[in-house]
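Cont'd.
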Amino acid sequence: MTRFRVSVHILPRRGLLDPQGKAVGDALHTLGFAAVGEVHVGRHIVIETAAKDAAAAEASVRTMCERLLANPVTEDYEIAGVAKE
Amino acid sequence: MKIGIVRFPGSNCEDDAFHAVVDQLGEDAVMLWHKDHDLQHSDVVILPGGFAYGDYLRAGAIARFSPIMREVADHAESGGIVLGICNGFQIACEAGLLPGALLRNDVGYRSMPVTIRVEHANTAFTNAAKVGQCLTMPIAHGEGRFAASDELLDELESNGQVLFRYVDAAGDATVDANPNGAMRNIAGVCNAARNVIGLMPHPERAVDALLGSEDGLVLFESLLVAAHA
C-alpha cells in the first residue's frame, strides 16, 4: 500500500443560485475586474489515504464524495489531483 | 404520548422543544443522546434546531451519521413520526429521510418572524390546522433555501408533500415573503409516507404569547390528534 494525497473540489451545481459566488463576483466587479464572469465558491478537501495505486486512491475518494463529501442533490465534485506522499 | 428529543453536539433548540411538548402540550418527553442506540420507546422523535457538529462540511452532513440516526431511520421506516425542525430538517434531508436539500440562503443569515401557510392538513404535524391557515413564527438560519430538481418539486407538489410555504400578510407566496430564496417558497415538506416532517421555521419557539406568538401550538397539538386517531 502507498500513501496518497487526493485533492477534491466540490462546487455548487451549475444552474443553482450560488450566493457566495455571486457576492464575490460582484465584489470583483466593484474592484474593476470587469472581465470577470461567473464566480463559484465551493470547498477544497485534501485527503491522505493509503491505496495500492493512484487509481485505487482516486476511486476511494470518489466513493467518499458520493457518500459524504458532496451532496448529490446540489453539488458536483471533481478530483483535482492524486499525488504520492 | 412520549416524545424523544435528540441532542446532538451543537443542538441548541432541544430545551425549547422540551418546553413546547411538556409545559405547553402536557405530554411526556425525554432527551435522547445522539451516541445512544435507544429511542427509549418514544412515539415521536424530534430532531431539534442548532448547529450539530458545527455544521461542518454541510449543515446536517455529519450528524446524519450519529449512532442514534440508525434507530431514527428504523422508527421512520416502521411508520413512526419524526419531526425535523431547522437543523433537524437539514439532518433529515442529509439522512435521506426527507427529499431535497437545504442550501445557503440567497441573502445570508436570517433571524426574523415569518408567516407560513399550511398547505396540507393530512399529516401528524398539521392535522389540527386548517389548509390555508397562516402561522407566524421565527426563523433563524443561514442554510434554509430548499432546493430540488424541477422533476422532484413537481412530484412533491402532486403528492401533496409541500406542507408549508412562506407567504405575505395576505397569505400569498410572493418573492418578497420568501426569506431565504427557497424554491417555490417551500418552508416545510414531508416524505411520501407522510410520517417524516421537516420545516425551517421554529414552531417550538412560538408556543407562548409572552414570546410573541403561539401559532406553533396548533402544529404540536396535531401530534395529539395523530396519537389519538
